[in-house]
Amino acid sequence: MTVIDHRGPQAVRPRTLAEIALPDVARDAIGRELAAMSDPTKDIDRAMARYYQIFASLPVDILQEMLDFGRHPDAPGVGLVRNLPVDAELPPTPRDGRPCPDKATYTAEGVLLGLSGLLGEPVGFLSEKDGQLVHDVIPVATGAQSQTNQGSTVFLNFHNDIVHDVIGRYDVSNPDFLVLSCVRADHEGVAATYYADARDIVRALDPQVLEVLRSPLFRLNAPGSYVRDVAGGAEVLSDPVAIISGPDEAPEISVSANGVRAMTRAAEQALEVLQAVCREVSHEVFLRPGQALLINNRKGLHARSQFTARYDGRDRWLQRTYVRRDHWSIRYRATSGSRRVHY
Ligand SMILES: O=C(O)CCC(=O)C(=O)O
Ligand SMILES: [Fe+2]
Question: Rounded distance, CA 321 to CA 132, Å?
Answer without folding.
Answer: 9
